């Protein structure tokens, strides 16, 4: 069994209201020097099969990521 980690993030230039809310909250808590916050998702999959990376990429293409507004990376975790 292979553990695959998928990271889904908003594309550059796409409005990220959750990131903006976190940035504002951090500023109100006194954290200075924060210029941008982007929020995404980390998805951990345990997969069987000969090509778990390809399987995870297909999952992203079909369900886990919205290709219009999100990018994703797929990596095997040791």
Largest sheet strand order: 2-1-3
- If helices are DSSP runs of H or I spanning 4 or more residues, what is the number of helices? 2
Structural class: alpha+beta
CATH class bucket: Alpha Beta
Radius of gyration from CA coordinates: 16 Å
Largest sheet: 3 strands, antiparallel
Categorize the overall geometry. elongated
Output the CATH homologous superfamily: Phosphoribosylformylglycinamidine synthase subunit PurS
CATH architecture: 2-Layer Sandwich
Number of strands: 3
Beta-strand percentage range: 25-35%
CATH topology label:
Mth169, Chain: A
Distance between the termini: 11 Å
Q: Percent helix among the residues? A: 25-40%
Mean pLDDT rating: 97
Q: What does the model show?
A:
With 78 residues, this protein is an alpha+beta fold. The chain has one domain (2-76): Phosphoribosylformylglycinamidine synthase subunit PurS (Mth169, Chain: A), CATH 3.30.1280.10. The chain is built from two helices and three strands; from the N terminus they run βαβαβ. The protein has helices spanning 17-28, 52-64, and strands spanning 2-10, 41-47, 70-76. It is elongated.
């Amino acid at each position: 069994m292979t553990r695959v980690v998928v990271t889904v993030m908003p594309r550059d230039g796409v409005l990220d209201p959750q990131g903006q809310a976190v940035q504002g909250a951090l500023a109100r808590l006194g954290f200075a020097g924060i210029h941008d916050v982007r929020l995404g998702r980390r998805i951990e999959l345990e997969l069987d099969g000969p090509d778990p990376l390809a399987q995870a990429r297909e999952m992203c293409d079909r369900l886990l990521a919205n290709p219009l507004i999100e990018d994703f990376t797929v990596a095997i975790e040791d």
